[in-house]
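Try this one yourself first.
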């Protein structure tokens, strides 16, 4: 136990003395470019992997939470579609011993409800594909934006100006960008 504590003590003291170099390494890390093609490929292989590559870890639970919500509603709509489909089949058969679970619904009402839940299920399946593509686009765009320099030197100043145009003074606003 004492040996482990001594090893931990000696390995952690190197960080105390190397504090100045740590700051330089942080500034160098900010200039490391991420490859947008690699980010989008990783995100296409496994949703969220491109966001991990871009070091946007907080997006991974959002992505999978979205898939869980969409999956839940696909399952719910599919279940309702099958309930109304089975009710319509029971309504249309000529056997009198079968009972429609929705006795207040007519044949046309059962058909409308069946079509409604099927359409919702199918739209959610299409939306899942769009959500998947949006995940890939997000990884690709943020890989491009990682090389965009954001620091205190980027400013935009708006100030009033007076300019002379055709021998008359003109008032206006001037936008000045400093990079």
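Now uncover the answer:
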């Amino acid at each position: 136990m004492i040996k482990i504590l001594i090893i931990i003590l000696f390995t952690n003291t190197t960080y105390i003395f190397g504090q100045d170099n740590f700051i330089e390494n942080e500034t160098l890390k900010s200039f490391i470019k991420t490859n947008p093609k690699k980010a989008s490929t990783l995100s296409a292989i496994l949703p969220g992997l491109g966001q991990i590559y871009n070091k946007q870890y907080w997006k991974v639970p959002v992505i999978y939470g979205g898939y869980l919500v969409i999956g839940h509603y696909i399952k719910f709509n599919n279940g309702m579609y099958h309930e109304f489909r089975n009710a319509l089949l029971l309504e249309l058969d000529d056997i009198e011993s079968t009972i429609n679970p929705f006795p207040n619904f007519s044949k046309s009402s059962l058909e409308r409800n069946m079509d409604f839940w099927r359409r919702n299920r199918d739209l959610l399946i299409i939306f899942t594909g769009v959500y998947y593509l949006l995940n890939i686009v997000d990884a690709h765009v943020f890989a491009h934006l990682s090389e965009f320099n954001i620091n205190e030197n980027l400013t935009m100043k708006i100030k009033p100006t007076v300019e002379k145009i055709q021998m008359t003074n003109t008032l206006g606003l001037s936008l000045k960008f400093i990079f």
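Discussion: The radius of gyration is 31 Å. Confidence is low (pLDDT under 50) at residues 5-10, 12-24.
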